[in-house]
């Protein structure tokens, strides 16, 4: 594929960068996940990646943690085929994410779980990674990303957690006992980045997860040696989500000679391809 | 313009929705800002909007607060014309945001300002809006968005603040004395949304600012009555940033009959047009 | 605007390039139009541009000519607000172009006009510009782009004409008497480009109109000295429509030092802005 | 994949539609190709598809025929890694298509081939499919798409041929002896569509190839029963290239109940995946 042009060539370079990163034992590997890839169906693949140590630290949006936990409680998303209007879905108690639907009742189930976990936590001020860890530990489903990360001692940061249904449930149920100090996340992730000689990252979508990893790499003085970004966002309007990785060089967030690829593709199409290719070649297994 | 099709028609509908929102005295007006619109040159326009009460609450990314404060300290961004490589920019101490450049020395200046402000704050656990208020109050520049918001008692939330240079400076300089409890932001913004009969929003880009406003509207039981979104992101890959506003109806974040527009345009082009049109018609002035 | 970044800065550069091109009397000015901008509402603006000699040659898609002629026959497009399904529109005899609707009966009216015009033409093999000229001359509506071009002796090329309803009507009604030799278009447009010392172009969308102008400029040894492109297409998948103008330098279709701008914007928003700005400054009037 | 959401779900539906189309012996199958997929590396895959009768008729852009013939003459495109500026490439005699490069000397080689083939054709007025057939027959390379189509009696239409380097070479070398009557293409493709009970299409990119097939299906009264579109273009600005297939229902170009998929993906990534999946399942082989 590297001998092809356009997207196919970039897919080849993404494979190369990920493969080299996977083999590098002196590299702390980060994955950032934004968007709706978990309810789209990539949940078990990312859980598999956690189990098989494709990464050492994970950054999720609040919605990402929400979606993973809800499925862990047995509440699976549905698929829509455009038949119903949003007004009709509202009446049916179904929330829409493009062509995916999540039941309102699933959120209720999540809320009682959250309530119960919060109760078990001593009053205090926590980084988000500790709240996520408490939630993951209480979960039984081994198909869960958060659970698998707990089992493998992989921290899951969610610095934007308050901006999610889960965040609003924590807010409503914490009764002031549990506070979330996001500065602790910075502390922890910087230490994580600093713990190896090199750092690398796979960005599935942009948003807070992408930037938080870049910022940690910079702050820990570990500009990324490997970086693969998969997104459909475009760069010209200046948002960080669509910014080309190249730009991060000027910020000292990415090494000038880093192995990198900017793949413009739906994550739900590209990630399974890349992981399948990585798995197929035995020598890349840890 | 409403009689035109495609983008021009949507621009007309955006004007209509904003104009109706501006006239509605029983509506709490939110603006969410993501992306690089402040260094791109919209800073004074948004400050003008704050001064003239186009909105009652503002949600910024951490980068948004960072960019506004830095200019408030006299550090203006530069424009690039593609002449230098990112490697060369790194050597020159210049960070790139598409075609905009920010000097590394500007960040140093920001850091001493942050340090000084943090020192003046009693030890404690703060919502981001309180930290931003402390920073804005200490600033002298009336061209600043954050300053103008302070002067007009408009809260500025930045729930993703830790994910920014400013956030990392707060982290480095707070010495554990100042903590950031993002749950307090939720508390405050929900109260804000709840304080009027209706709510409305203008979303400049997506990201955390967009979702945090939608979530607040939902939690406060004030689904938006007016909503205008300006973004270049597309909906099909399921991210919230590019999701059509229509989708929010199924979440009870937007009223089924809300006046709304989904404008697919660079914010730096569309916002000046819309505000100019709103200003031109005297009857829309408050 | 030139002092702004991102899209706003590019809009400023687009103005500069167009303004310089308009003042240059030794430059053959081309405009290429693709997409649905005519039924979207830009028809009278482009006709105005023809009348006021903003360009010396026009390249339209077959659909562009079709839409202009139909309106010239009194058949105006409608605007949809998403209320009806495509199945329902099919039953009502209404064809959809995103949020624009064209009545099937309008095409029937066009067909009798085409039939009549073809009858008046001697049997032979014509370039598309001659067929379009015959159609425009027979039209009475001075609000028509094609008519205004006839009145101002501006050739209108439509090398992809067969790929349109108009093309299929010509095919059905020509009865073998009228043939379309697209090589004649190449002949004529190359002469046109060759007739001045310099050439410049405004590309509204990509497609055949964009490339045909670039090819003519190259073939006539008049690489563009001015070029402005307005499109929402992106470059990374390699299509010519979304290709950055810069790329044309390597093809000798654009001069290395050409004044140029790549504006990423809906044409229906950007074109009125640019023409209004050009009109406002008296010194730019010819 | 059909059980997934977002792009992965659409990929599953694309497979389903193509698989059903492949099994349907009463369906004339069309493929339309726009963009730079041939020099990107899909040439041999599309030639393979011709040989194994994945389609009965092909519509190419002029550039598509150009690229296929040049490789057939031994002139292969190169890959760039962004190292050289377009000014430098111009000096080196290399033309750029995003990250692909084509040598100027390759075009010279093509020109002498074209000259020779044109000489062998009797003076007259030809449809583009006949010119392409003459070129393909004269070619020896069985890896060529055009050649394979000749060998399998699959017509290749290129109604926009004049808008390409090949078109300009035909123009320059035909000396008025050879004329191109695009109305003959319409005639031939409508007959082709009409020859089976049903029609189906795979659109790789948009442009003239997409619309010409839709128009032929409509004119022949064979609205498509199967349709798969792979493109990165977006629909909101009204161009046909990015229009959702659904829209074609209102035009009677697509049956309301057609099996269809709108895949938003780089063709160079998606097509190999889809063909590999179709090949893997023996029962789908003809």
Q: How much helix is in the residues of chain A?
A: 40-55%
Radius of gyration of chain A: 19 Å
- Span between N and C termini of chain A? 24 Å
Mean pLDDT of chain A: 94
**Sheet with the most strands of chain A?**
6 strands, parallel
Biggest interface and residues each: A-B, 70 and 70 residues
Shape of chain A: globular
Structural class of chain A: alpha/beta
The strand order across the widest sheet of chain A is: 7-2-1-9-10-11
The oligomeric state is homotetramer
Descriptive terms for the model:
286 residues, 3-stranded antiparallel β-sheet, globular, 11 helices, alpha/beta, homotetramer, 6-stranded parallel β-sheet
Q: How would the blueprint of this fold be written?
A:
The structure is a homotetramer of 286-residue chains.
Chain A: H1 6-23, E1 27-33, H2 37-51, E2 57-60, H3 62-72, E3 78-79, H4 86-92, E4 94-97, E5 100-103, H5 104-120, E6 124-126, H6 128-138, H7 145-151, E7 156-157, H8 165-174, E8 178-180, H9 182-194, E9 198-204, H10 207-219, E10 224-230, E11 254-263, H11 267-280
Parallel strand pairs in A: 1-2, 1-9, 2-7, 6-8, 9-10, 10-11
Antiparallel strand pairs in A: 3-5, 4-5
Helix pairs in contact in A: 1-11, 2-3, 2-7, 2-11, 5-6, 5-8, 6-7, 9-10
